[in-house]
Amino acid sequence: MEWTCPVCGKALRPDAGSYRCENRHCFDRAKSGYVNLLPPSPAAKRHGDDRRMVQARTQFLSRGYYAHLMQAVAALCAELTGSAPVIVDAGCGEGAYTRHVYDVLTAQGKTPQIAGIDISTDALRHAAKLLPEAGFCAASTAHMPLADACADLILNIFSPFMAAEFRRVLREGGYLVRVVPMARHLWELKAAVYDTPYENPPTDLSAEGFTLLRRLEVKKTILLASQEDVQALFQMTPYYYKTGEKDQKKLDALSSLSVATEFEIAVYQACAAQEPQ
């Protein structure tokens, strides 16, 4: 993977547990295995998903509730890549999807190089332990510390969509696999919490520099089998931090919940760069 220095843009090389560029900017690898390439910020400022959200998502996904989505994403990655693909998971979170894609590709005899990028160090601690074969770094997906045209495929799953940056990192003809929630995704969960539940707004799937090749819908109603799993699903979503304590407590009475999961997967191909006029 062609990492670049977030300070000067020069190539980063491994150097005894650190990464260093030719201008001697140095970034240490954390004990858990990721490298922090975020610019300095006030110590009190939190970046990305916090520990509670990461723990909830880890618990929820480990029980297979989103296995149908993971399988669909991994199948696309297998279809779209060659024998030794370079893959970037932009907004990788705790690494569950990254791990599943890696397992599916290696089971087919492929030798993927995978980089996971996220701004949450809480999430990256888990991701780096879950998939030590990959390279993980703390960075913004708006300014990824990666060389131009270094990737064959980018994953973008429930994360900010940075079309220009993704196009920069993808080689010409490379692929982008994007996952977004559909209008009534998790409708029953919202109906249990809010007096007036609302549909998710439609996602604009246009992307400059890309051709939209296809759109797939992945839908399944899942049965959350325990109060613990109901709470885990709620706490891993942005709804948790946007909901008052009174409404949050409505879930305490539920020992199970049937919930519709509705995802849309958009597959794009990077267009040829336009020559300057």
Brief account:
The protein is an alpha/beta fold. Helix content is 29%, strand content 27%.
Structural class label:
alpha/beta
Number of helical elements: 9
Question: What is the CATH superfamily?
Answer: Vaccinia Virus protein VP39
- CATH-level-2 architecture: 3-Layer(aba) Sandwich
Please indicate the count of domains. Answer: 1
Low-confidence stretches: none
Q: Kindly state the percentage of residues in helix.
A: 25-40%
User: What's the story with the biggest beta sheet?
Assistant: 8 strands, mixed
Calculate the mean pLDDT score and round it. Answer: 93
- Give the beta-strand count: 11
Note the run of SSEs as H and E: EEEEHHEHEHEEHEHEHHHE
Walk me through the structure.
The protein is an alpha/beta fold and 277 residues long. The chain has a single domain, classed as Rossmann fold (3-Layer(aba) Sandwich). The chain contains 9 helices and 11 strands. It has helices spanning 51-62, 67-80, 96-107, 121-130, 163-169, 187-193, 227-235, 239-242, 245-248; strands at residues 13-15, 18-20, 26-28, 35-36, 86-90, 113-118, 135-138, 151-157, 170-181, 210-224, 257-270. An 8-stranded mixed β-sheet has the order 4-7-6-5-8-9-11-10, sandwiched between helices. Helix 2 (67-80) crosses helix 3. The two termini are 33 Å apart. The model has no long low-confidence stretch (mean pLDDT 93).
